[in-house]
Design a protein that fits this description.
By secondary structure, the chain is an alpha+beta fold. The chain folds into 3 domains: about 5-140, no CATH class; about 195-275; about 280-425, Heat Shock Protein 90 (2-Layer Sandwich). Helices cover about 55% and strands about 20% of the residues. It contains 10 helices and 12 strands. It has helices at about 10-60, 65-70, 90-100, 145-190, 200-245, 250-275, 290-300, 320-335, 365-370, 390-400; strands spanning about 75-80, 85, 110-115, 120-130, 130-140, 285-290, 305, 315, 340-345, 350-355, 405-410, 415-425. Helix 1 (about 10-60) packs antiparallel against helix 4 (about 145-190) and helix 6 packs parallel to helix 10 (about 390-400).
């Protein structure tokens, strides 16, 4: 499982587990290092003590001194030891101990020797005339990190901390889930849960900001709706008067041309007003896909429009979705060889409303352009090309107002598939 797929709660728990394991590893490493240093210091102290005692006995020349030295593991030899590696810290400790004990030694040294079962310290004190008093102190091999013990401790500590960690993660993420549901509900028009009024100050501040934003957006949409109604009334009234005046023209050919121009202006105005209002938040209800698709095809009974099996249900505004589907059917009949096929597909938590044609197809690079307002497939603005260039834009805006989207894709057997992606109703 990759980290980007984990939610905030999962990441908190995962980070806590990682910190515990890393802490145990660092703690184990530091403990082993401290233990190793302690073993080395003890071995150096033992070596220094043995050499000091042996040197004092040798200086005093007591009876049985050689037997005492033998029991202490000390030997008198010619020349200093040459095996092993010099050990500066142990040498300094030995010289300090000799000085403190008042032993007159012209020179001293300590070397570290590696053996089969560990290491050993060889200390030597010069007695004069080329004679050296030497002794050896074994030192165990440094212990390796106890991986199993560290893993066991980390596992137990992680389990102990898991319950409060899960509780903490849920308490942190619960308000975030509520805010996400509020935002999703606002975008798709579904009823939203109440905003959280409890929790950390940051979450309460975010909830308050979202509440203010929602109120302002709804107010702007309401003002836009009122303005569009007024604009539509103010523009259509002079258009109706113009239509009456045009019908009084005596020249029949000129009259038909003028009437056609007025009708095109009226249709374009209607499309513009529809596009401007299509993003408004709709009133939603549960709709059976089969019934919706068949209602959309009723207006094309005399044309080659086929409705296949359309199982499933969606949450939407019937009139708005009918307008979107009929815009897609019009586009399919106009540019898709005069044929259109309606169907649905379900996948995961989505339902696709599909309008497919058998035209020459649509390059994927053109899809984004055609969803923009006033864009046409032939880039033409002549009166010979029907439509205002807003049909696909209106369908896309209606889909987005329902929390979905409109996609244009090449069909498998040629032609174009227009897909309206909508969420399934939440049970």
């Amino acid at each position: 499982m990759s980290l980007p797929r984990l939610g905030l709660g999962g990441r908190l728990v995962l980070i806590l587990a990682a910190v515990v394991i890393a802490g145990q590893l660092v703690n184990g490493f530091l403990l082993v290092r401290a233990e190793q240093r302690d073993v080395i210091r003890r071995a150096e102290a033992v070596l220094a003590d043995r050499l000091v005692q042996a040197a004092l006995v040798h200086e005093e020349d007591r009876p049985g001194a050689r037997r005492f030295l033998g029991r202490r593991g000390a030997r008198i030899r010619q020349g200093p030891p040459e095996i092993g590696e010099p050990n500066p810290s142990a040498t300094e400790q030995l010289r300090a101990a000799l000085t403190e004990a008042g032993v007159a030694a012209s020179n001293s040294t300590v070397r570290t020797v590696e053996r089969e079962r560990g290491f050993a310290l060889i200390g030597a004190v010069e007695l004069g005339e080329g004679r050296w008093l030497t002794t050896l102190t074994p030192m165990p091999r440094p212990r390796k990190l106890p991986w199993r013990l560290i893993a066991l401790q980390a596992g137990v500590l992680t389990l102990v901390l898991l319950i409060p960690a899960v509780w903490l993660a849920r308490s942190v993420t619960a308000p975030m889930r509520t805010l996400t549901a509020v935002a999703d509900g606002f975008l798709s028009g579904r009823p939203s849960p109440p905003l959280p009024t409890r929790g950390p100050p940051d979450v309460r501040a975010l909830a308050s900001a979202l509440d203010t934003l929602e109120s302002r957006v709804l107010g702007a949409l309401e003002r836009q709706s009122v303005m569009l109604g007024a604009v539509g009334h103010d523009l259509r009234t002079p258009l109706a008067s113009l239509r009456i005046l045009v019908e009084s023209v005596s020249d029949e050919a000129l009259r038909r041309e003028l009437i056609g121009g007025v009708e095109r202006i009226d249709r374009t105005l209607a499309d513009i007003l529809t596009f401007a209002s299509s993003g408004a938040r709709p009133d939603l209800e549960e709709i059976r896909c089969e019934a919706l698709m068949r209602r959309a095809a009723e207006a094309y009974a005399a044309q080659d429009v086929v409705v296949e099996k359309c199982p499933g249900a969606i949450l939407g505004a019937p009139d708005a979705l009918l307008r979107a589907l009929r815009n897609l059917i019009d586009n399919a009949l106009r540019h898709g060889g005069g044929k259109a096929r309606l169907s649905t597909e379900a996948g995961g938590d989505e339902i696709l409303l599909i309008v497919e044609d058998r035209g020459r197809g649509l390059p994927e690079t053109e899809a984004a352009r055609l969803l923009r307002p006033f864009e046409r497939g032939d880039r033409s603005r002549s009166s010979a090309t029907p439509g205002s260039g807003l049909g696909l834009s209106i369908a896309a805006a209606i889909a987005e107002a329902h929390g979905g989207c409109l996609e244009l894709k090449p069909a498998a057997g040629g032609g174009t598939r227009a897909l309206i992606r909508l969420k399934k109703p939440q049970m």
